[in-house]
Specification:
Blueprint lengths: L2 H14 L13 E9 L5 E8 L3 E6 L12 E3 H9 L2 E6 L2 H8 L2 H5 L7 E2 L6 E10 L4 E11 L1 E4 L5 H13 L2
Antiparallel strand pairs: 1-2, 1-7, 2-3, 3-5, 4-8, 6-9, 7-8, 8-9
């Protein structure tokens, strides 16, 4: 067989193995989430989600809420159910601002998370998350950016503080 023909056959095979399962996709509905969960003192589950159009959607103590599984995975059906429990705030992130922060998601997803450190009890947990989507599996991978409260840990990527500050500023405006 000629070397050129071999290259034509082998290169596509090698490149096909390089595709990531989870990526930031135009097909995904949610990009970022900030949550506060506290099971003490009657319980609380509230926060907001930023969707793929930059809309800010809030939720407060829904009867049913889908949390990511042990592998940090949500199905499309679970995401849709969570979104059905949200209320549109009428506030929207500009396209440029949203795109600037979307650009951090793949870096955050490929970084390690620090080990959890206990900080107290009954404070609950503030969580900052971003999402990647797999069209192959129709699932979302939840990526931890930072968790504060009873237990604290954070993504070890250089952009963690930048994204958390951005999400905290959005939270203050709600």
């Amino acid at each position: 067989m000629k070397p050129r023909l071999i290259a034509i056959i082998i290169i596509p095979i090698l490149l096909s193995g390089c595709q990531k399962d989870y990526i930031v996709s135009q097909d995904q509905k949610i990009l970022f989430q900030v949550s506060y969960v506290n099971y003490a003192w009657g319980g609380a589950n509230e926060g907001f989600i930023i969707d793929n159009e930059g809309n800010i959607l809030t939720y407060s103590n829904p009867d049913v809420w889908n949390f990511p599984s042990g592998e940090k995975i949500l199905t499309v059906a679970q995401v849709n159910e969570n979104l059905s429990k949200c209320i549109a705030t009428g506030k929207k992130i500009s396209v440029n601002e949203l795109q600037n922060h979307i650009n951090y998601i793949d870096n955050l997803a490929s970084s390690k998370i620090s080990s959890p450190v206990g900080r107290g009890a009954d404070m609950g947990s503030h969580g900052y998350y971003c999402f990647q989507y797999s069209g192959n599996n129709s699932t979302y991978k939840c990526v931890t950016i930072k968790i504060e409260g009873d237990w604290e840990s954070e993504n070890l990527n250089y952009c963690t503080n930048r994204v958390v500050d951005w999400l905290q500023n959005i939270s203050k405006g709600l």
